[in-house]
Amino acid sequence: MTEQLKQKLNDSKATRWGALAIVAFTMMAAYYVNDVVAPLKSMLEVELGWSSSDYGFYTGGYSFLNVFFLMLIWGGLILDRFGIRFTGKLAAILMVVGTALEYYAMTGLVGPEAELFGCSEMFGYQIGVFTAFLGYSIFGVGAEVAGITVTKIIAKWFHGKELATAMGLQVALARIGSQAGYAVAIPLARAFQITTPVMVGLLLLVGGLIAFFVFAIMDRKLDKQLEAEAVASGEADPAEKFSFKDVKNILCNPGFWLIALLCVFFYSCVFPFQKFASEFMVLKYGINENVAGTIAGLPALGALFLTPIFGGYIDKRGKAASIMLLGSAMLIGVHFIYALPGISYWLVAIVLMIVLGIAFSLVPSAMWPAVAKIFPLNQLGTAYSLIFFIQNIGLWGIPTLIGKVLDVYCIVGQDEKGGNIYDYTIPMCIFTGIACLSLLVAFLLKRADKKYGYQLEEPNIH
């Protein structure tokens, strides 16, 4: 009996990696949907009559409910109170519902004459734009809650094992979804309809929902084994429930604030930039719009190969704080060169996107396992949700800001299709300034690691 208790489901290498593959598929579908509209910005302006402000408003919708209605914080509390199975299913359902609403808005509510419940406008935006924004907001709640849920799943299933490698591989697989979204968006839209890429994403998310139900069966069995092991050894339940007093402990931890600030500054220079990168590549570097999306997706492609490699290095050698510092420094160089008005050779654009991909692999491979070192398992859901909440402030505010800046300061003409031509110098200067802040925070985090003993420079495998 004792021998049987020692062998848990996640002790099997094949089983724990199989569980990871199942939940990673759900996140892959989420990342596809998140990025598939980005290459279509110019087509949205021409075919649906959207402006850059409309597009920025829609893109910022991903984080609107998470920021202003604290949905991520509630999601983290639900995760720690009700567990990963319930929360994961809820998140997957929200992603399906939000994407379906987004698809409906772009298909059936086109133009200023469109009406929904007698309304043709909402808060100064066409009803189609607002409904797409609302759908993307609901999807954003599901995607972010799914993200923290999957992160906690990995921390649970890979505790004391290949934690950073597993987190890196999950991120890498998710980037396949991103890269697919960037690569197929324009070809699908041109071959069929502008909303076809979104419909494909909806079908993928339905498959992701089914996949999560399959994982729930495996996780329920693991929980029974963990409970039996705890009873046999006389220890406390390893899945001890979160209590609200732990929120204070999380917020009083300096490591929390440094990780959260690094997260918001770093990701604000990556994800919002990618939302505009396809158009930026066409306008500044003269890249054909059919391949501009693929180039904009190169950071996701780089992360596919590099994040597991960097994660494996951190598992065995450590140096997470140093790696976050390096990745933040690389980000500054990328955006600074992009901001220089005199450099418009297409090869430079591609090389810089590759460098961005390396930075995009370095920082996440070190950051997310670092949170699991700073906080115990029963606080992880809320810690991740609070960090994601702060990150979402940037993911809401920066694209909204960039869209407004483009419309007010950066229009320099119109193309033959009637779309606006923009000078992206000011937006790239904004991204460069934010990248400088991420480097400063990464430096402070490395100092805090020495002061408070987070052991971020130590290996994960023990």
Radius of gyration: 22 Å
Query: Total strand count, please?
Result: 4
- Give the integer mean of the pLDDT values: 89
Main sheet properties: 2 strands, antiparallel
Q: Which blocks of ≥5 consecutive residues have pLDDT under 50?
A: 1-5
Overall, the morphology is: globular
Strand-residue proportion: under 5%
As laid out across the biggest beta sheet, the strand order is 1-2
H/E series = HHHHHHEEHHHHHHHHHHHEEH
Question: How far is the N terminus from the C terminus?
Answer: 26 Å
The secondary structure category is: mainly alpha
Approximate helicity band: over 70%
Subunit organisation of the chains: single chain
Output the number of helix runs: 18
Descriptive notes:
This protein is an all-alpha fold and 462 residues long. Helix content is 79%, strand content 2%. It has 18 helices and 4 strands. It has helices at 2-6, 13-35, 41-48, 52-68, 71-82, 84-108, 127-157, 163-191, 196-233, 245-251, 254-268, 271-285, 289-296, 298-317, 320-339, 346-374, 377-409, 425-452, and strands spanning 121-122, 125-126, 411-414, 420-422. Helix 5 runs antiparallel to helix 17 (377-409). The longest helix has 38 residues, at 196-233. Residues 1-5 have low confidence and may be disordered.
